[in-house]
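User: Let's play a game. I give you a shape written as tokens, and you guess the letters that built it. Ready? Here's round one.
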């Protein structure tokens, strides 16, 4: 019996025999970029979600820990109804099927949605100062590890370019600058993936917040840039800056450290965005080349554009910006076309 069928049989047994539930049916709800899967459980007019996290691949304890912290802050995360940590099974509140991205792509007014998301983020950062002390630090080691994903997976594996000694030195200098800038920001509770695919549209206590198990204590601008420079949907710079200024006012009203003026806060926002998007370039490439998941490659151009645009705004990144235009930008469409051709050949072979 395949591994996935074994896990699904385990879920049926857990629900029926150990929790005393009698599901009418169970169907896939979603999967994410990790080894976790989610199933929607239908019973007596209500639905619940089962998180399936194989214990040899995933540890549900961080998820449970961060759930507790966010619920104490008042953030709307899925309530945990039951947990079997040893077998990697959680029974969760169902926050529905409509995430921000689908609503926005359907033409919804972004202002009320982002207003709710920004207020929820302000709660996480302002009310979560004590909770953040229970999180690991988003310090030099994880920041550097994430940045190094770009030369390994995006440049070498995806673009198939070999960096020169001078280019590697430039990357090292750029990464050191970005790490120093990140560490200089006020440190707060950081969700680490606070974007439109992880925010659910709800009629009450909007938004529902998902995928927070990797939370750390880190730079104040990180989650804000995840939301407003989203890798899946883009907004005009003028609107983004207006949202950033409004968010700074929200935090200032709560007594948070928000820098000397709007310009400093915007610098924090932009520069931690360069770090995040360099990391994401590596992660999206790795999801294909290591994990066989090509779906994120279409999001690489927007992610790269965020890096390019931010680098033009700060003189410290001028040389890195030139490197991107000379060596990276021309190769990305070539690399993505190469993968598309490979997928087409594979599909053709399957149907032959």
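Assistant: Ready! My guess for every position:
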């Amino acid at each position: 019996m395949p591994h996935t069928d074994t896990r699904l049989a385990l879920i049926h047994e857990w629900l029926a025999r150990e929790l005393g539930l009698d599901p009418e049916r169970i169907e896939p709800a979603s999967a994410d970029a990790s080894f976790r899967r989610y199933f929607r459980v239908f019973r007596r007019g209500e639905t619940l979600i089962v998180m399936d996290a194989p214990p040899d691949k995933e540890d549900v304890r961080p998820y449970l820990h961060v759930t507790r912290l966010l619920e104490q802050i008042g953030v709307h995360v899925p309530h945990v109804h039951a947990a079997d940590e040893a077998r990697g099974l959680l029974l969760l509140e169902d926050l529905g099927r409509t995430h921000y991205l689908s609503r926005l792509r359907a033409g919804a007014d972004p202002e009320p949605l982002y207003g709710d998301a920004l207020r929820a983020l302000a709660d996480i950062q302002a009310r979560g100062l004590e909770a953040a002390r229970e999180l690991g630090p988003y310090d030099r080691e994880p920041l550097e590890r994430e940045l190094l994903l770009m030369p390994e997976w995006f440049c070498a594996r995806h673009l198939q370019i070999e960096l020169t000694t001078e280019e590697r030195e430039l990357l090292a200098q750029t990464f050191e600058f970005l790490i120093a800038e990140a560490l200089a920001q006020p440190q707060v509770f950081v969700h680490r993936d606070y974007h439109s695919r992880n925010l659910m549209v709800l009629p009450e206590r909007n938004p529902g917040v998902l995928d927070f198990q990797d939370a750390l204590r880190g730079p104040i601008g990180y989650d804000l840039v995840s939301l407003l420079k989203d890798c899946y949907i883009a907004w005009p710079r003028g609107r983004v800056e207006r949202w950033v200024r409004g968010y700074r006012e929200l935090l200032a009203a709560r007594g948070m450290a928000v820098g000397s003026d709007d310009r400093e806060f915007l610098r924090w926002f932009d520069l931690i965005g360069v770090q995040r998007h360099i990391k994401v370039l590596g992660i999206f490439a790795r999801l294909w080349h290591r994990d066989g998941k090509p779906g994120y490659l279409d999001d690489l151009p927007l992610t790269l554009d965020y890096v390019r645009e931010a680098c033009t705004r700060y003189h410290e990144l001028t040389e890195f910006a030139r490197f991107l235009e000379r060596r990276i930008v021309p190769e990305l469409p070539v690399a993505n076309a190469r993968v598309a051709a490979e997928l087409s050949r594979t599909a053709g072979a399957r149907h032959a």
